[in-house]
Amino acid sequence: MKTLPIRVTPGQDLRPALEAVVREHGCQAAFVIAGIGSLSDARIRFAGADEAQTLAGDTEILSLSGTVGVDGQGHSHSHLHMAVSTATGAVFGGHVVPGCRVRTTAEVLLGLLPAWSFAREHDAATGFPELRVLPREP
């Protein structure tokens, strides 16, 4: 494992930005060790919901964790969760979906896994595409 501290800059979309960094470093698999920052819009899919919700306005990222996966065809295999707080102190959490725009910064520590690859496959037991960890092919 190689650790990589990064800063996602204002205006960037958090999830695709993390996937781009992993791809730029020649990896297909990574995980978020820690992440904090601020968003101007947060797009989160709450537990059990079919659609994501937009929390418009300034929010603080209290925590960010999960897996970041990309394959050679540019497909995402990421699964990220975060907790954010609003200007009133209300806290929301759930699945990170594209559309989380960084407001001032997102400071993220990634763990790059160059020997591994992530995929998502349908799991009959859960009904969802679940993580499959594979050795990376040369």
Class by SSE composition: mainly beta
Spell the H/E element sequence.
EHEEEEEEE
- Helical residue percent? under 10%
**Mean pLDDT across all amino acids:** 96
Give the number of DSSP strands: 8
Q: Distance between termini?
A: 17 Å
Strand content is over 45%
Our count of helices gives 1
Instruction: Calculate Rg over CA atoms.
Output: 15 Å
How is the main sheet built?
A: 6 strands, antiparallel
Write down the overall geometry: globular
Runs in which pLDDT lies below 50 for 5 or more consecutive residues are: none
Characterize the structure shown.
The protein is mostly beta strands and 138 residues long. It has one helix at 14-24; strands at 2-8, 29-45, 53-69, 79-86, 91-96, 101-112, 116-122, 129-135. The two termini are 17 Å apart. The relative contact order is 0.30. The strands form two sheets. Strands 1, 2, 3, 4, 5 and 6 form a six-stranded antiparallel β-sheet that branches. Strands 7-8 form a two-stranded antiparallel sheet. The longest helix is centred in the N-terminal third of the chain and has 11 residues, at 14-24.
